[in-house]
Design brief:
Order of helices and strands of chain A: HHHHHHHHHHHHHHHHHHH
Number of helices of chain A: 19
Largest sheet of chain B: 2 strands, antiparallel
Strand content of chain B: under 5%
Shape of chain A: globular
Number of helices of chain B: 28
Largest sheet of chain A: none
Strand content of chain A: under 5%
Oligomer: heterodimer
Shape of chain B: globular
Number of strands of chain B: 4
Number of domains of chain A: 1
Distance between the termini of chain A: 18 Å
Radius of gyration of chain A: 21 Å
Structural class of chain A: mainly alpha
Chain lengths: 500, 697
Amino acid sequence: MIDPGSTPMIVVALLGTVGVALPLISVARGERGSNSFYAAISLGALAAAIGYVGYQAAAGNVAPGALLSADVVSDDAFGGFFAIAMLAVAIMTTAGSINYMRRMQHHAVYYSLILLSAIGMVLVAYSTDLVMLFVAWELMSIPTYVLAGFHKRNPSSNEAAIKYFLFGALASAVIIYGISIAYGLTGSTNIAEVVRGFAALDPSMVPLALLAAGLFIAGFGFKMGLVPFHMWLPDAYEGSPPPVAALLAAGTKKAGFAAALRVVVMGAVALNLDWTLALGIIAVMTMTVGNVAAIMQRNLARMLAYSSIGHAGYILIGLAVAPFSATGSTGAMFHVLNHAVMKGAAFIAVAGIVTTLAVTHLDKLKGLGRRMPITALGLTVSLLALAGVPPLNGFWSKLVLFGSAIDAGSASAAASWAPWLAVAGVLNSALSLAYYGWIIRKMYFEGEEEKRVRSEPRSVVAVMVFSMLFMVGFGVYPDPIIQFAEFAAPAFSAGAGIVP
Amino acid sequence: MAAGEAAAAGLLPAAAAAQAAWLVWVLPFAAALIMPAAGRAAPRAAGYAAIAFALASALLAASLLPGALSASEVHDQIGWIDAIGLKAGVLADPLAVIMANVVGWISFLIIIYSTGYMKGDRSLVRFWFWMMFFIGSMQLIVLSDNLLQLFFGWEGVGLASYALISFWYRDKKKDHVGREGRRALGLLDYYSPTHAGMKAFIMTKVGDVMMIAGMLLIFAFAGTFGFKELAGDTAWAADMAAAGLLVPAAVLLFGGAVGKSAQFPLNEWLLEAMTGPTAVSALIHAATMVKAGVFLVARLGPLFFALGAAGILADQFFEVVAWVGAVTALLLATQGMVNPEIKKVLAYSTGSQIGYMMMALGIAGLSDRFTDGYTAGFFHLMSHAMFKASLFMAAGSLLHAVGSRFMTDMGGLRRSMKKTYAFMWAAGLALMGAPFITTGFWSKDAIFAAVYESGNAWAAPIFAIAVLTAVITAFYTTRMIGMVFFGPKSAHVLRMESAGRLVREAPLSMWAPYGILAALTIGIGIIGFSVEGGMHHLFVEYLDHSFGIRDAEDHAVAASALPGPLAGLNPVALGASVAAFSVGIGLGYVFYVGRWADPARFVASSPVFYGIHKLLLNRWYLNAMVYWGFVVAPLWLARGVFRYFERTAIDYGMNAGLEKAVGWSARVVQGTQTGVAQSYLFVFGAGILFVALVLLV
């Protein structure tokens, strides 16, 4: 039985209660309920949740690494790490939405949906059972379908929602198909059982297991934004309200990686085959397509969407080389957390710009450095961090990721191709600087005549300040996060099982 | 964590001492950060905050002194980036603590001076920010326990110097240096503040690149940047020596010091650095920037010397250091004899005196009595810091009072600026090395003695250079004082007075700092011999304790030949330094104070003198050659490449091709993004097939 005092249980109970209560309160209060009232409640709940997860991890009440227990969830550091990353994104999204939502209706529902989605994300990270994972996955996804279409009368918001929903439905179908194959082969949905079963599989059945792995990659890859499962992503990010795009790009996307690390990587290690090359190829394709397409974009949100496809490619490097290099999964998780903050900050900056100036086109950003100094500075820092400029946090996680690829190449002959991933990553980073730099140039070096300073949304400024402190602080002193990532990363050793 | 031994020494418990050592460099940085807020709160608050923080930092440095004087050390580390085994730390050993006090207290006085000097400037917040950043970076260099962390401070110093040298970035005519229109080898010898800042930044970067190469070479063999670790296990040095890389790495590191300390051949930036506010010049020359190079050599010198005990010799390294120092000392001193700008004369003098320090540190490694040269070099650093800071601040007062940087625009000021006159004589005498009463005498004499007694093959020529430089030093210092304070008032001063603007003494906040320092040079000078003895004793213990360096017995038997209180001094060195002082000041007196002979007529009297004068005034043509070789010629080359290669091969060939390729592939990717959900879903399905195929095959 699951301990009712374990971290995931407490977080679910807390966020679930508040998430369900919010709409009820709004019904009771009618029109009197204000936007910031609901935002404050959900911020409080999220802060309490992240505080509890952080406390549990800091106090050493959780098992290190990723545990595969017989229960449906396990209280381990791996889940805690992702929970912190995703709750942080939820907080940034909620805070960044306050000004954006002021002109909209149905505030309580909006914040409640973010909370419910946050529960799903956290549970995905903690799940150790495929059915539990699927339920959490749906709990995470369904609120975001609604959120993407929250602008009921905006056609592009509707289009974003319907595309996102179609793909989500397809991906869910694919995942559940994979689960059913795994169940058919091993007679269990517990991940530990499945992995054990895969390891002792009759050779004639291996192709079916591989098909299951492939279906999982496709299903999770949809959320991660891997090429070729990425087509929905730019349209959805562009059409959604910008704070929701932050949630999608920085939050739910990371849940995909959590699921992939638990299921795909572990399962494939058990199958003991050369699955890593497939991930490596997808990684290179993903980062290249993302960055090349981003160069041509003229819409800031869309450019960031492609950039986040590119970053999925970098993170995937860590997954691909995980069996060969001890730092592979550490680097992936490190970058997951960094990217959550960097991309979250960038999208919240977009939200601030949209709220204040109602533009997202690049040419309209001229002189933004003077018009909205703090937002522009926050956006600049996050773009530089995304590009991996030292001494910002993005530099370190890319360093660990690319370093792990080079390590893997020298550690194992089976991974002699791995250093090429690092080469592709470095080239792509250089390419990405072209369009990041372009945005910065627009904001600061063009539009000389624009002098009028606009009052910046206070909640956006708060998010900017927090994320700048994070990006610069952990850029200068990255050690605590690296240590936490090392503590939380699942341990793989080549060929050997990770089965408890 | 705290591995301090200071507890035994008394005043501070180990943990408190470690905290103090951290705060010494953290506080100035913190001050820099709060400057904008302080400046916004009240315009004067920034200045007071700067004074308070500088004082706190200096007091903390002073609190470390008792421990350091009993030759104990504080070493405290924290994890920095554990993933690659890097630690950050402070190492407060006697060397670092004495240096930190020199830097801290002199900076504090300069900050007070700046409140007067910079009064009314429009960008005071920027000024205070960079001043505090400068001091923090320097203290970071001094207290770092490893090369990498030191390098951060090193670059911080470089950045701050760039920002402060170009502080008056509007490039007004009065902020330039050089005489408008003067040319050497066809190039203008007239520089704007922004140009000067750039020049300083780039020239020191040349050294920095060498330094980082040397650092990484050592790291590649030793796997650590830490000074303690490097000294503790010397297996890395044996490996490097076997690969023939030890001396190159050491010389590369010295390259960083050459750039930062403005030694030959990277000396030319120092002159143009005079475009900064005078308070900045004082800081650069006395406490922060150029002393960093000497400190680096003092940090690393014992490390390389101690390897000798293991049979690994780095003699070539010390020869390079000694000769670079000797050449710079002479080269820059000669140019100081002819320059008409007061700050430039002082700048030449700084480069030359730093040359003395390098000479002493180099010769230390070439003799069997390492501590003699080491103490002499470091003692000279201290005494130079005091008298040069004093001289620069006094020069700043003159600039304020007269409104011109040319000594030819001053003259006869001794009645109107009595205090400045007196203090400048005191500090000037220290620079000249006036016997027995100035710090400059004792430290210079110690260098002479160390060189003379080293017994090295190079000792004789280097000794000769040192003595000749001392003569020249005494001469140009007397010339400077004579031109400014003696003789008739210049046309410029007379014009000012007839316009009703009298030359006045500087306010208290300005003359007090350089008065204090001038008094100190004399005060410490009178007991200078015992100060040097105490320092020698301290360094003997420190070098033995930290590096296992033990000196040979004092073989200069002749030392005891001198009577009474002079016993222990080397008679040859003593005689040479007294003689050099007398000759130099005598010549200077004849031409510039007594004015019995007209220097201009003297130069014109013979083509040889005229030629030498022109050579010196044109800086030995070295600056012009640097510009021709590294600025003008590359620019021509670059223009040629641009016109004949870039515009044709690259622009029409490669760029157009690359642009087309990127544009085409981006359009292809974009083309697939049709917006039609059906086609997206199709690609998704194809993707599943693709993944399954890759896995199955």
